[in-house]
Design brief:
45% strand, 16% helix, 17-stranded mixed sheet, 4 helices, alpha+beta, Diaminopimelate Epimerase, Chain A, domain 1, globular
Length: 258
């Protein structure tokens, strides 16, 4: 095992990740090490850690860990960031296919804007006046007013730890309508156990719920860390050809001593 490993820091609309080129498989997938690296006071700091690895039949593989050190389900902004990272490493030119925990993803990059294809969504479940769906990660979507002043941590933590979700956990999105094709969202993320500046699978989930009865081809999504856009084709209750679009940037790089 190497004593020193090079890392890169990326952010996508404020969702930030420690990125490591692990094509040589030298990084130890140790929960305590990953948790420490993601710690904002004692480590590098990040909402998660992402490994780029080789995968037969694909340009690369994405392996994602939450900041608590546990391997997790799909992360949309992390997916966009690893596409930017792979592009930086000259893994592909402008279009790519890669494998993540929820299967195959396509993506393209133009002038720092990454468009990432998400999995199809067949079911949007009604939970009283709210909604539950899986966009690669499980999401709870609820519409609120005065989102700017809303107590996201308190309410998100309560839903995430309620009897229905306490075991597996769920990401909780609070959504406010801005116009007929634009929403603002704030998200409490499981695994981080706090509000994050952005959540890609959450933006996707919220946009799909918002467009469900309107059949919108695209929804603009405002998050704390910037702006995203979600495209989708609706056929009955099913959404296909779902794309998440937004910026992803390299912030800095360095080396850490294991």
């Amino acid at each position: 095992m190497q004593n020193t490993i090079e890392f890169f820091k990326y952010q996508g609309t404020g969702n930030d990740f420690v990125m490591i080129d692990n094509r040589d498989m030298q990084f130890p997938k140790n929960k305590e090490i990953i948790e420490k690296l993601c710690d904002r006071r004692f480590g590098i700091g990040g909402d998660g850690l992402i490994l780029l690895e080789n995968q037969d039949g694909f340009d690369f593989k994405m392996v994602y860990f939450n900041s608590d050190g546990n391997e997790s389900t799909m992360c949309g902004n992390g997916g966009r960031c690893i596409v930017a990272f792979a592009h930086f490493l000259d893994v592909f030119e402008d279009k790519t296919t890669f494998e993540a925990i929820d299967g195959k993803h396509e993506a393209e990059i133009h002038n720092g804007i990454i468009k990432l294809k998400m999995i199809d969504v067949d079911i949007i479940k009604n939970v009283e006046n709210d909604f539950e769906l899986n966009t690669g990660s499980p999401h709870y979507v609820t519409f609120v007013e005065m989102l700017k002043d809303f107590k996201v941590f308190d309410n998100g933590n309560k839903i995430r730890n309620s009897a229905s979700y306490c075991q597996e956990g769920i990401n909780v999105n609070f959504v406010e309508e801005i116009s007929e094709d634009e929403i603002s969202i704030r998200t409490y993320e499981r695994g981080v156990e706090d509000e994050t500046f952005s959540c890609g699978t959450g933006a996707t989930a919220s946009a799909l719920v918002f467009s469900k009865d309107k059949n919108l081809p695209a929804v603009k999504v405002k998050v704390l860390g910037g702006n995203l856009k979600v495209y989708a084709e609706q056929n009955g209750e099913t959404f296909k050809n779902i794309w998440l679009e937004g910026p992803a940037k390299q912030v800095f790089k360095g080396k850490f001593n294991l």
